[in-house]
Amino acid sequence: MTRRTLLQLPGAAAAAPFAQTSRTAAAAARQAPPNILFLMVDQMTPFLTPMYSRQAATMPNLQRLASEGVVFENAYCNSPLCVPSRMSMFSGRLAGAIDGWDNASVFHADIPSFVHYLRSAGYETTVSGKAHYIGPDQYHGFHARLTPDIYPTWYDFLHPWVKGPYWIEGTSIQAELAHLGPSEVNTQIDYDSTAYEHGLEYLRRYAMRGKGRPPFFLNVSFTQPHDPYCAPAKYLDMYRNAEIPMPHPYDDIRKLSPTYEWVEIVHGIDREKVPPAKVRETRRNYMAMCTWVDDRIGGVLAELRRLGLADNTFIVFTSDHGDMQGEKGQWFKRIYLEWSARVPMVLNWAGRLRPGRNASLVSLVDLFPTFVEAAGGKVETAIDGKSLLPLADGREDGREREVIGQYCGEGLIEPECMVRRGQYKYIAVNNYAPQLYDLKADPYETVNFAGRPEYAAVEKQLRERSQVGWDGPSVKRRVMANQADREFERNIKGYMNDNLWKA
After folding, report:
1. Are the beta carbons of 67 and 380 closer than 8 angstroms?
2. Which of 77, 82, 290, 417 is catalytic?
3. CA-CA distance, 218 to 317, in Å (whole number)?
4. In degrees rounded to 5, what are phi and psi of residue 71?
5. Of all helices (H) and strands (E), which one includes residue 35?
6. Strand-pair partners of 129
7. Per the residue annotation, which of 116, 132, 140, 267 is the catalytic one?
8. Which of 97, 76, 77, 75 shows the shortest CA–CA distance to 86?
9. Structural fold of domain 32-394
10. Backbone angles phi, psi at 152, to 5 degrees
11. Which one of 89, 352, 376, 445 is most buried, by most CB atoms within 10 A?
12. How many other β-carbons are positioned within 10 Å of the β-carbon of residue 224?
């Protein structure tokens, strides 16, 4: 076929200019402030996802997003519990700077969030799904919330330390592992389906507005694969004959530190050890939940492409914390061991970030300056995070980075601080001997190397780092005073509700 014949084909003459115009439009779009799509899940450990493990859940959509983006191999939450983790992430601050102690801590309205910064930069800011803000400010910079929250926004989840270790009703293995699937309809599926549909609707309405619309920041936030672990039969059947990876052999977590007895009491593990068959079934349900969420994430990404919004959208995916999933006999979160503290993290920005993997130590507080930099802004608030973009685009090698964690939630009765630097992780609990892990020599954290002469220099450095801005005894006084104030207010609120109800 000659060139002349080709040009005479119906529609051929118009096709070439259209393709050129599309390329020009795409190039122009990349010069404008990007749209930002922030995809979040809840309680997803990276170690059962295909971005981080060969034995993993089936998650083709996130796998594609990761293959076309930058995967951070060593990303951590800063507090291994929903509310303090999200407070740190949205504020860019560690828990001690914002009183982000537990699942009943108030996210005060006078703390700037990265959403405030994006809104100030001209973004239309919207969240569909879980935010888990406690207190009267349920927006923290968002123009709109498309769904209510799935969890209480008051002090319902307050558990004062003055009561000592205790079993938290509804978060024990007795309660949570009693609800294994199949389950076609439940609170989590219903809530996540609503968040998904409203997220799609927002994208469609945004696309129809045409020229003159501001860039968007859309946070689509799912609650799964949070416990209880139950998934529809269709997804469970995908793993009926699959090889389910089992926990690394280990006998008693308390050999690492006696402080782990607290979390065993909180989770009811002191009263019941989960047999191997139930561990396998729980992991099967968890992996099925991951696949269910992946399908919805795939739907959001497909809609973004269908509407022509993908070329200039910066996409970030992560979780608020991990899940122990039976490792060392533990479930859920609330500890700084790897399965609980590590999170998946992917940055995808077509035309701006070259696909690859990055081994730098990063954490959720780093998202604040990342979003602001992507939007072309400048952070003027005191924060603890550093932008991920210099790592993702090669401007920084990341060798000097470290991760700091601070936690004072349930599962503890003393303040806890974690430092990850290089191959080492140091965990300090007030009034107790520290923990030191060498993750290169012992990736499964089976040995506490604290106190060994050969690790003395490293331990000293990390101990000193953990004490910067963190004094255990004074933090404990702050936490317990704050808990007492909230307990007082919670009791008054309950009394008022009872009387209003009776009236």
Report:
1. no
2. 82
3. 12
4. -100, 125
5. strand 35-41
6. 221
7. 132
8. 77
9. Alkaline Phosphatase, subunit A (3.40.720)
10. -60, 150
11. 89
12. 25
| Burial (CB count within 10 angstroms: exposed 0-12, middle 13-18, buried 19+), residue 383 | buried
Q: What's the start-to-end Cα distance of the chain, in Å?
A: 86
Label residue 274 exposed, middle or buried (CB < 10 Å: 0-12, 13-18, 19+). middle
pTM of the entire structure? 0.92
Per-residue pLDDT of the chain (503 residues; tens, 9 = 90+): 333 222 222 232 232 222 333 443 444 445 689 999 999 999 999 999 999 999 999 999 999 999 999 999 999 999 999 999 999 999 999 999 999 999 999 999 999 999 999 999 999 999 999 999 999 999 999 999 999 999 999 999 999 999 887 766 678 999 999 989 999 999 999 999 999 999 999 999 999 998 899 999 999 999 999 999 999 999 999 999 999 999 999 989 999 999 999 999 999 999 988 999 999 999 999 999 999 999 999 999 999 999 999 999 999 999 999 999 999 999 999 999 999 999 999 999 999 999 999 999 999 999 999 999 999 999 999 999 999 999 999 999 999 999 999 999 999 999 999 999 999 999 999 999 999 999 999 999 999 999 999 999 999 999 999 999 999 999 999 999 999 999 999 998 665 454 433 33
Domains in the chain: boundaries: 32-394
Alpha-carbon gap, residue 121 to 144, rounded angstroms:
16
| Residue 502, CA atoms < 13 Å, CB-side half-sphere | 6
Known catalytic residue at 321: no
Using alpha carbons, select from 86, 79, 61, 72 the residue that is nearest to residue 345.
72
Nearest Cα residue to 282 out of 189, 147, 180: 180
User: In the structure encoding, which two tokens stand for residue 210, read together?
Assistant: 């045409």
Active site residue 82: yes
